[in-house]
Structure formats: C-alpha cells, structure tokens
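In these records, each integer encodes one residue's backbone shape. Here is one protein:

___
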Amino acid sequence: MRTEYKIFLLVTGFLYLATVVYGWWTWYESPTNTVEWAGTLALALAGTLTLMCGGYFWFVARRIDPRPEDRDDADISEGAGEIGFFSPGSYWPFGLALSALVAGVGLVYLQWWLLVAGLVAVILAAAGLLFEYYTGARKAH
C-alpha cells in the first residue's frame, strides 16, 4: 500500500500545483483579469479526489504489515497464491451499466421520471451485484 499512497499523493501535489498555475494563467491572459473558474475548480476537485484516495491508502498502509510488493528484500514466491475471489460470470454489471445509462439520459434531457427510474434501477442492480452470492442458485452453502 505504500507505493499506492505515494503515487496518489504525488498526483495530488501535481494537480494542486496545476490548479494554481491554471488559475493564475487564466487571470493573467484574460482581458478583464478574471479567473476561468470551471477548469480551476475541476483541477482542484480532481486533486481533492486523489488526496482522499491517497489518504485512504496511507491509513491502510499504517495498519497492515508490508506486502511483498512493498518490501525490497521480498522474493517473487511470497506473492504467490490466491489473490481473491473474482466472479466467473455475472450479468449484474451489465444491468448496472444499463441503469446508469438510463439515469444519465434522464438527466441530460431533464426527464425527471426517467432519472428517478434509472436511479432506482441503479440501486437495485448494485444490490443484486452485492448480494449475488448470498441468494439464489449461487448461494454458498
């Protein structure tokens, strides 16, 4: 996790620096000396997002033992074995993407009924994806 948080915090520093430079540059180049706020705010929010991710990885890295990827003296064989469980086949991600598409179309065309229907479908599809292996034919015994 140490590598991950260092990368995220490096990107955070770059984005905040780019925010300051972009804000100054748009102010300097503008004939009315105004800042272009859309790009400045987008860069600042992107920096905040990477700061949150990096902070989470830093928080987790402090509480777990170093992984083989984080140690210089580790052997390749230490990273062998089961990584985790990955679903071999599921239709829920397709349903989730389709319902997000419906909600997005409802938002673009300001059709509130379509937006609400899409958001309800997003919640149901996310719940189906989350509880896929707790109910139905794939239930673990």
The mean pLDDT is 91. Residues 23 and 40 are 6 Å apart (CA to CA). The helical segments are 2-29, 37-63, 92-108, 112-130.
